[in-house]
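Continuing from yesterday's entry. The apo prediction looked reasonable, so today I'm repeating it with zinc ion included to see how the binding region is handled. Same sequence as before; SMILES copied from the compound registry.
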Amino acid sequence: MNENEYLQQVATRAGLQHYPQQGPWGRKSGSAVGTRDGYVTAIGISRDRQGVKVAILLRFKKLEQPDLVKSAVKSAAIKKGKLGAVGNDFLRWDWKYSFAKPKAEEVAKLAEDLRTAIRPATMGFDGRCEQCASTSTQSLTLLNGMPLFICATCQDKVRHELNQADVTYDAITPNYPNGLVLGLGAAAVGGIAWGLVAYGINRIFLYGAILIGYFVAAAVIKGTGKVTRFGQIAIPILTVASVLFGDVIFYTLIVMRHQNVPFSGRILNAIVAHLWEIEKEGSGVLSLLFGLVGAGYALYSARKPKFQARFQPLGAPNA
Ligand SMILES: [Zn+2]
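Holo prediction written out below.
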């Protein structure tokens, strides 16, 4: 049975409707969605690094203490699957499987058991918009795949707020001097830490370079206020400088210990003059690459957020 047929079957058993290509999990097979006793219910198949699972999402009226939902569902001691996540208006339950999908009727039963379990701690929806709680709203709308009861006015409001966030982000004036100062500081601190740790454990700890790259990038971005071209150029340079600086400290300390001599400008000069040869011998190049990986990761995660609200009526995946 393919995913589509399976979700179709789950939908029938659970009193939901199957919507291919729609729902929170962004798969072609879509999800089974509907409202049961006021609880928005979505069931779909979700695949991630940990494997493949049937995911059940229950949504309820926003509440103050999601912990109560957690304890309610815990005390129900449900055997199939496990709690995926709880928020102040949803609960997600994951049922991992490896070969055969769980039986459709068992999934439907599970969704019902979950609903029963959280009922004392939550309230279902009552045909009104969940944002303004006044406008009558009978049908579900998907916001970036998430089924909600949201009226047209509130949809406009959400769109407007997100546009505003977009404008606000663009309006941040980058503070370059600040970025440079914080970046230099981070590079210096990172380099010293790198050198001392290497000296302490008597070898170069490659993964530390990733941390340095990440640290330097985070400092520059914090200083400038956002990711800019300046940061994209300064961050790799500072990262490389930081790792090299750390290596100089490490090798200088090593020479001082081996030769049993105090620190002197002569040793330092000798290390700096031969740094490239030393790096080529050891794992120098690799540590520079690791540093850049860390920097790249930080740059990537700090890129301009996507402020996008896509509303879509259920049953119209191309709308
Ligand atoms: Zn509303």
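Comparison notes:
- The pocket of zinc ion is lined by residues 129, 131-132, 135, 151, 153-154 (CB under 6 Å).
- The chain has a mean pLDDT of 91.
Will overlay with the apo model tomorrow.
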